[in-house]
Task: structure prediction
Amino acid sequence: MDYNFCPACSVQLPTTTLPVTCPACHETIWDTPACIGVGIVPVTVRSHMGLENRLLATRRAIAPVGLVCLPGGHKLRKETWQQTVAREVLEECGVIVNPETMTLLHAANASNGNVLLFALCAPITIDDPTSLVHDAEVQEILFLSEPPPDPAFPTHAEMFARFFAMIQK
Ligand SMILES: [Zn+2]
Result:
């Protein structure tokens, strides 16, 4: 992101090349990437087959449209990364996960420089999968039994593979 003015005191900056230190308030503006919290949520769903162990995922309604990813999004400053994951899983899938049950499974570097934190959540049971409400970023909520053929991002593809390898042990 380019800044023409200091975000702290609004004085014009001498350059848009970051990092830059504001000549007035001496705040330094860094070229920092975003932190993305991503939820790995094992779910037990009830079907006509009985109880099935699946992985919660979404088919995207935003770019890359139609591809499959794990629920997640940008960490806000006021949140812990666990709270980010819980908020995103709720917004995108209508599923409540407890931030206190999460463990950090993996940290990955995205090709755009962002940092992705993959949180393994405690397994949850979903009695009525059709009752879940997703937001406009999502076409469809998915309950995967294997890695999807059409993952949205290489980092997510790696985690799909890792998750299913992990539960088959
Ligand atoms: Zn300033």
